[in-house]
Amino acid sequence: MKSTRLHQARLLMLREAMTAEAASLAVGYASPSQFNREFKRLFALPPAAEVARMRRSFALPPAASGCAVRVFALSGRRGFPGVLDMPASGRHYQGI
Question: Which of 6, 18, 49, 59 meets the CB 3.0–4.6 Å disulfide criterion with 45?
């Protein structure tokens, strides 16, 4: 679960140009410092350096405009992972 959230945050920073703090909050971290620590432990680089490395190393097509964004969220009393599909309009949510 932790690895999935960190990979999702990395994609948000890369594709949506989010800051590390915004991406950490988007994937469910309450503490940006904890996010940075765990990110560096997994990827061996701080978030900004990892995103810069990926931009230099890979040609990544931009996210298609108007397509749905899949956001991982915690749901339920015990924090079981869930996925929300958010259409480009951001108005409707459908749990999967």
Answer: 49
Q: Which residues of 54-86 are buried (b: 16+ CB within 10 A; e: fewer)?
A: beeeeeeeeeeeeeeeebbeeeeeeeeeeeeee
pTM over 0.85: no
Report domain extents, the chain: 1-62, 64-96
For residue 22, the model assigns a pLDDT of 96
Q: What is the pLDDT of residues 11-24, one digit of tens each?
A: 999 999 999 999 99
> By C-alpha distance, which of 24, 31, 33 is closest to 5?
24
List Cα–Cα distances, 42 to 21, 46, 51, 66, 74, in angstroms: 17, 10, 13, 32, 21
Residue type, 69: V
